[in-house]
Amino acid sequence: MTDPPEAATERTEFDSHGLFLELATRRMRGPLVAGSHPRRWVGLVAGLPATVLTVSLVVVPVVWTVVSAVRARPLVVVSCAVVAVGAVGVTQLVRQRGDQRDTWLRWGLWPVLLGLVVAGLVVLGTALGRDGSWAYVRTLVWVLFGVVLLVVALGIAWWGRDSRWLWWPLIVPVGISAVVSGVAFRLIFQYLGDRLGIESVGVYRFWFAAMLGSAFLWTWFGFVTGLFRAGIRAIESDPARARYLYRGEKGTLAQRLDAQLRPVMLIVGLAVGVAAARVFDVVLIGVPGSMQYQVDSATVHWWRLAVDSEIEAGVAAAYGLPLAVLVGFVAWLLQPDVRTQKTSWSVPRRHTVEVARHPAKPLRVLVMLAVSGVALLPIVALILAALQDRNGWGFGAITRMWRDPALLRSLETTAWVAGLATIVVVAAGVPVAYRLAALRPNRPAANIAVVSLVVLSVLPVQSYLGPVNTFIDTYGLSGTRIPLILLHAAAGLPIAILVLRGALLAAPGTPAADALHGLAGPGTIARRVLTTAGPALGAVAVLEFIQVWNDFVIGLLISGAGATPWSLLLWGEARQFSENSAQLAAGALMSAILPVALLLATWRRWLVPGLTGGVLR
Fold it and tell me: Of the spans 102-111, 230-239, 327-336, 419-428, which averages the highest pLDDT?
C-alpha cells in the first residue's frame, strides 16, 4: 500500500531497508567542509587508552576482588546479591505504581522483594560481625546525610537564586581537602570542648561525630548549592524551559524542577554520594586515635583489615563489597532518564535571555551574609592556629613549614601527579565521549555505555585498590609516581566521560548534530569539540586536578617514600596533634592555596557552564 499523493509531497525523510535519506527543504549555502566517513580503526585507536586504563586498573581488579571475596566469605557475596535484587525490585515497583496493568502480580511481588531485602541484611549483618556491621550503619547514615544535603541545598538554591557575590565564601571549601578540613574542625571542636568543660567519653563521642558532620557539610554545601543555583538560572534563561517550569501542567513545581535539573543532579549526586560513602580522610586526621573505633566508617574499617598482615586479603575484599552495592544502588537511583538525553545539558547556549533579577530582600541578604561568614570560620581558625607559635604569636610555624624540604618535595610530587593525571584524563576521555555522543540515545549500546560509566564512577576504592596494590608491590613499582598517575586517571575517566558526553550531545537530525558529528577531517572535528565542549573540558580538568591534589586514601595505600603526597606528610604530623597544631595549620593553609585559587579562577568561566549550562550573573 502506497502513501496518498498529499502525504508523499510532504515527506522529507525516507527510511527503507537500512537506507536513510533526507531532502534539503531550503537552499544550501556556506562553504563546503571537506570530510568523509571516519575509518572505524581510527575511533578504536582513539578510545584505546581510556579502555585499557579503565579495564586494567578498575574492571579487572574489581573482578579479582569479587573472586577473592567469594573464596573467603561466600556468605557475604550471596547476601549482597540478594539485597541488591530485592532493592532494585522494590524500586521498580515504586516507579511503576501508576501502571494499572498486572496489579495483582505487583502486589504479590511486594512481600517477596521486601523479604529478600530483610533476609539479606540479617545474613549480611551476621557475616560482617558486630564492629563491621556498626561501621556500615554509620556509613549508611553518611549516605542519608548526603541525600538530605542535596535536598536542602536545592531548596536554598531556589530560595537564594537572586543572590550574587554572597555565594563566593561558600564555594571556597570545595577546593580544600578533607585532610585540611579535618585539621580545621578538630581545632575548633577541641577548643569548644575545652571551653564547655566536656569530660565524658560518651559526650566526646557525640562531639566528634558532630565534628565529622560539620566538616562534611562545610566541604560540600557551597559547591552543591552553587551548581544548583546556576542550573536554575540556566533554566530561567531558556524561554522554553522556563515556560515548562513555571507554567507546565505536568506535576508540581518541585517535580518539574527535578526533571529539568536531573542531569546536573546526577553529576552532583555522584560526587556527594561517593564522598559520603568514602568518609576516610577526615576520620583519620580529625578524630583522636582512641575515638576512631567508635565513629569510624566502613572505609576506615576496611583499611584496618587491608593493612593487617594477619588477616587474609579475601576477608578485606569481602568486607568492601557491601559498600560497592550501596553506592552503586544510590547512583542507579539518581540516573533514570539521563541515559536517553538527546540534547546537550552542559554546554551554554549562544543566545540566552537575561532573566529579570528581583532586588534581594534585606532579610535574605542578612541570612546569606551570616552563612557566608560562618563558612569562613574554619579558615580563620587555621590562620589563628598557624600564628600561635611555641613562643607566642608570630610567623614561626609558617616559616618552618615554608622552609621544610619534605613538605616542598611532597607538594612538588603532588603537583606532578595531579597535572599528569589530568592530562591523561582529558586526552583519553574526549575521543570516547565524542563517539558515545554520536550514538543514537535510544540504542542499547548508548544505554549500556552510560549505565556502565555511572557504575564505574561510583565504585569505592576498596573494590580495586587491594589487587592493584599487590601488583605494584610484586613488581617493585611502589615509591614511584607512575602507579599514582595511572590509577588516578583510571578512577577519574568514567565521570569525565559522562560530563564530556553530556556537553557533546545533540539531537539526531538537527543542525547542531550535523555541525558537531557531520563529515569532517580531524582538525575540523577538534575545533568543533573545543567550540562545543570548551567549558566542560575546563571543568573536567579543574575538578580532576583538585581531586588528585587533595587525595589521601589512594596515596596512602599506593605510594611509598619516593612519591609521598603532601596529605600523607600532614597525617604523620597529626599523630602529635597538640604539639604540632601550629605547623599542621600552616601546612594545611599552604596546601590549600593552589586548589582554592584554581577553583575561584575557573568557577564562573568553566565549572558552572561546563557542569550546568548556566552562567553566574
Answer: 419-428
Do 468 and 487 meet the contact criterion of CB atoms below 8 Å apart? yes
DSSP three-state, residue 377: helix
Nine cell digits for residue 91: 524500586
Q: What's the pTM value of the predicted model, to 2 decimals? A: 0.84
Q: Which of 137-141, 335-339, 470-474, 581-585 has the lowest mean pLDDT?
A: 335-339
So what's the pLDDT on residue 492?
93
Helix or strand or coil: residue 22?
A: strand
**Cα–Cα distances in Å, from 613 out to 8, 92, 171, 532?**
40, 31, 18, 11
Which residue from 458, 484, 601, 485 is spatially nearest to 542, judged by alpha carbons? Answer: 601
Contact status, residue 324 vs residue 298, Cβ threshold 8 Å: no
Share of the chain above pLDDT 90, in %: 21
* Exposed e or buried b per residue across 402-418, where buried means at least 16 C-beta atoms within 10 angstroms of its C-beta: eebeebeebbebbeebb
How many whole angstroms separate alpha carbon 297 and alpha carbon 62? 21
Could you tell me which residues come within 8 angstroms of residue 107 by beta carbon, excluding any fewer than 6 positions away?
none
Grid cell at residue 529: 569539540
| Residue 353, pLDDT above cutoff 50 | no
Torsion of the alpha carbons at 238, 242, 245 and 248, rounded to the nearest 10: -110
State how beta strands 13-16 and 19-22 pair: antiparallel
Cβ atoms of residues 497 and 49 within 8 Å: no
Cell numbers that stand for 142 in this block: 553518611
As a whole number of angstroms, the distance between CA 487 and CA 178 comes to 20
User: Please, which residues bridge with residue 15 across strands?
Assistant: 20
CA–CA distance, 45 with 62 (Å, rounded to integer): 25
- The whole-number pLDDT of residue 19 equals 62
